Amino acid sequence: QQQQQQQYVPHVETGMEELSMGVFYQWLGVVMVMALHNQYKLEDFFSTRARTLFWSPPYLGELLTKKQFVKIMKTLHIEQTEEDPFVGIKRLINAFNTNMKETFSPGTFVVTNEHSSLSGLSSSNCVSTASSAVQKQRKSSSSSSS
User: Fold this and answer.
1) How far apart are CA 19 and CA 118, in angstroms?
2) Contacting residues for 110 by C-beta, under 8 A, at least 6 apart
């Protein structure tokens, strides 16, 4: 209980009873997804229009409604002081980093979704690139141990 009370929560006046941490994390996740797909407009992410090969923004309406998203965006207040206008952002980043250290444990290889990548690599190319990297690492390990 005490640890949960010490978490940093930005002040949000939404007109809702209170913004829960769960809804805040959903909002933050939506913002991150939108940043990865910045070629689309806000409306596109909440549109129920059928996705096609050439137009396929992630549908985020299952997490938040567009109205909820905009309301949080408009009323989000990050703490500022004259000494440090970025104090609220720093606290938010520190809380995020602390949470990642406590909950995320990457393996030897971390795979990302190349669909959102601009590199143009196909899945098979990514696999062969990863395989080549593993083979190079094995060769260098065996040659250095000889």
Assistant:
1) 35
2) none
